[in-house]
Design brief:
- The chain is of the alpha+beta class.
- The protein has two domains: 146 residues, 2-Layer Sandwich (Phosphorylase Kinase, domain 1); 148 residues, Transferase(Phosphotransferase), domain 1, CATH 1.10.510.
- It contains eleven helices and twelve strands.
- The strands form three sheets. Strands 2-1-3-4-5-7-6 form a seven-stranded antiparallel beta sheet, with helices on both faces.
- Helix 6 crosses helix 8, helix 6 crosses helix 9 and helix 9 packs parallel to helix 11.
- The longest helix is centred in the C-terminal third of the chain and has 26 residues.
- The radius of gyration is 21 Å and the shape is globular.
- It starts with a strand and ends in a 5-residue tail after the last helix.
């Protein structure tokens, strides 16, 4: 996940100043918030004032505030995400702050709290929300979800693309299968299972961003599983389409065969013969490469 430094104890970063003005505006927090998320002094106060945030560390001192900046072939998130680096007791740590409406913040906190002791997801600390702003009639009142940062090397799209283009080794499907099926067995449909929400680190796969999730009392059914896998494969295919167009790579030969092998092995891993989800055709409408579109359309004819 790409990050751009915004502010530090030395002041606003040159990296942020060099961004186009529209991108600066997209990154900076907007709406009515409990405090200014990119102000160093405010962050010191909040990090030390909320006892749930890394309670084992005292006298936290903010070093750096970074904002999420989508990669060249990614898209801007509906929410705004910040990674805050602080020092305490001789140790430097990261904590993530996610700006979001109350209903989504409370839902994601609840889901992460339920999952964090069972599976590899961020551990939630606290959802900070100022009810007085709402009662006083302030517009667009937002809260801040505080949680741990997931260290990782690649997201799903980056990892599979590396295999298709660079012919690196591919593995970890079984671990991903275990993670997703465990979540589904708990009655949770992620509902936004894009490649950037699956992260690969040294210990395997982690999953983030549950704000759109649906939670039921029973394990999700086959139709919902098809939806999840269709979104994941469709999102990767769109990502790959943009990548090969930008770099002038032909979708033929080894690239094509490795992509099709990935699709086949991935579906087999989940025991899926035919994807009947309505979501896959929606992704395919944006794929410009005809050969790539023809390959993904084979899924519907398996």
């Amino acid at each position: 996940m790409p990050w751009i430094s915004i502010n530090s104890r030395s002041g606003v970063s040159g990296e942020f100043k060099r961004l186009p003005t529209p991108d600066q505006r997209r990154m900076l927090p907007s709406g009515s918030l409990p405090f200014n998320l990119v102000d160093i002094d405010n962050l010191d106060r909040v990090l030390n004032g909320i006892p749930e945030i890394f309670p084992e560390y005292k006298n936290k001192k903010t070093l750096l505030v970074e904002g999420y900046y989508p990669p060249k072939f990614g898209v801007w998130s509906a929410h705004k995400l910040y990674r805050i680096k602080f020092r305490a007791d001789g140790t430097e740590k990261y904590v993530v702050a996610k700006k979001m409406p109350k209903v989504y913040g409370e839902k994601e906190f609840s889901i992460l709290f339920r999952l964090s002791n069972l599976l590899s997801v961020p551990k939630p600390f606290h959802f900070l929300y100022d009810c007085e702003l709402e009662s006083d009639g302030f517009p667009d009142v937002q809260g801040i979800l505080w949680m741990t940062y997931i260290e990782h090397r690649f997201n799903f799209n980056e990892y599979i693309l590396k295999w298709c283009i660079e012919e690196s080794e591919i593995s970890y499907f079984e671990k991903m299968h275990g993670l997703l099926t465990s979540i589904w067995s708990l009655g949770i449909k992620h509902n936004d299972l894009k490649g950037e929400h699956l992260l690969l680190g040294g210990d395997g796969w982690s999953i983030i961003d549950f704000e759109k999730s649906k939670v039921g009392a029973a394990p999700i059914g086959e139709k919902d599983m098809d939806d999840e896998i269709s979104v994941l494969l469709g999102d990767f295919t769109v990502y790959m389409d943009r990548f090969i167009f930008y770099h002038g790579i032909k979708f033929s030969g080894d690239v094509k065969s490795r992509y099709e092998k990935f699709i086949s092995e991935f579906l087999n891993c989940f025991g899926i013969e035919v994807l009947e989800s309505r979501y896959l055709p929606l992704f395919m409408r944006t794929v410009k490469n005809e050969e790539l579109r023809a390959s993904i359309e084979k899924i519907e004819k398996r």
